[in-house]
Amino acid sequence: MRIVYASDLHSNKELYHTLYELIYRENADELILGGDLFEHSRFIDEQFLFLHDFLIPFFKSTKIPISIIAGNTDIAVVFEELKKT
Questions:
Q1: CB within 8 A of 20, min separation 6: which ones?
Q2: Nearest Cα to 9, choosing from 27, 25, 22?
Q3: Collapsed DSSP state (helix, strand, coil) of residue 68
C-alpha cells in the first residue's frame, strides 16, 4: 500500500496541485493530511469558500481514500463540514 502524507498546505492551491501530481505519479492508495489545510483566518466565510470552491472538488478528484487531521488554522465548524463530504 502506498500512502502519501502532507500537512501545512494553508489553502495554497499550487501546493494542492503539486500534491495531486504526487498522488498520481506515485500511484498512491491513500492520502493522509495532517492539518492546517486552510490559511489562518479569523473569518469563517473565507475557509468555507475555499472548502466548497476548491477543497471538496480536489478531494473528489483524487479518487482515493483521504484521512484528515485538524490543525490549529482549521476552524472547527469548517472542518466538521469537510468531514461530512
A1: 58, 61, 62
A2: 22
A3: strand
| Main-chain dihedrals φ then ψ at residue 23, nearest 5 degrees | -55, -45
DSSP structure class, residue 26: T
Q: What's the distance, Cα to Cα, between the start and end of the chain in Å?
A: 24
| Position 75, amino acid | I
Band of residue 84 on the pLDDT scale cut at 50, 70, 90: confident
Rounded to two decimals, what is the model's pTM?
0.91
**Burial group, residue 51, by CB count within 10 angstroms (0-12, 13-18, 19+):** buried
Average pLDDT over residues 29-57: 94
Burial of 10 (0-12, 13-18, 19+ CB in 10 A): middle
